[in-house]
Structure to design on (115 residues):
């Protein structure tokens, strides 16, 4: 009889555990949804503020003189040239590193396999 009782208890425990897993899963999902809605709401608020800031900035730029706009564009052009130079340097540096790294690997393989 005690064996049968044990089986009933084990089955009950298994069922309870499965129900808990389902319950916790549902709870986790609803918490995530609530959290996402909260985050989405905050992002939207930030977005609205950002839009307002951007509109104010655009209005300020629009009312700036053509001379200032031209100056800004020239500065931007200088910055773009500088940025391109930096990127080119990085590409060259990366290339040099890859070449050196390949040589090290080849050397290592030769030593390893006694070629």
């Amino acid at each position: 009889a005690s064996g049968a009782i044990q089986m009933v208890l084990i089955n009950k425990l298994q069922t309870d555990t499965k129900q808990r897993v389902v319950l916790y899963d549902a709870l986790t999902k609803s918490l995530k949804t609530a959290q996402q809605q909260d985050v989405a709401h905050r992002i939207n608020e930030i977005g609205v503020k950002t839009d307002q800031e951007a509109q104010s900035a655009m209005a300020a730029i629009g009312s700036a003189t053509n001379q200032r706009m031209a100056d800004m564009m020239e500065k931007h052009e200088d910055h773009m040239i500088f940025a391109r130079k930096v990127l080119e340097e990085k590409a060259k540096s990366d290339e040099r590193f890859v070449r050196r790294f390949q040589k090290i690997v080849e050397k290592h393989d030769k030593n390893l396999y006694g070629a």
Notes: Residues 2-63 form the longest helix (62 residues).
